[in-house]
Amino acid sequence: MTATLIDGKAFAATVREKVAGHVARLKEEHGITPGLAVVLVGEDPASQVYVRSKGKQTVEVGMNSYEHKLDAGTSEADLLALIDTLNNDPAVHGILVQLPLPKHLDEDLVINAIDPAKDVDGFHISNVGLLGTGQKSMVPCTPLGCLMMLRDHHGSLSGMDAVVIGRSNIVGKPMAQLLLGDSCTVTIAHSRTKDLADVVRRADIVVAAVGRPEMVPGDWIKPGATVIDVGINRIDAPEKGEGKTRLVGDCHFDSCAAVAGAITPVPGGVGPMTIACLLANTVTACCRANGLTEPE
Ligand code: NDP
Question: So what family is this one in (predicted)?
Answer without folding.
Answer: Belongs to the tetrahydrofolate dehydrogenase/cyclohydrolase family.
